Amino acid sequence: MEFLIFLVIIAVIGGGLLWGRKYFRHEIDRAKRINRANKNK
Asked: Is 1 helix (H, G, I), strand (E, B) or coil?
């Protein structure tokens, strides 16, 4: 039973990371573009 709970926790964390990456990629790309623009000045 403990092993099952452990698997569920890992699945939730993995799913959350994948969802977060998909959701935040736009923001991360924007931040990278802004940083590059500032370095080029």
From this structure: coil
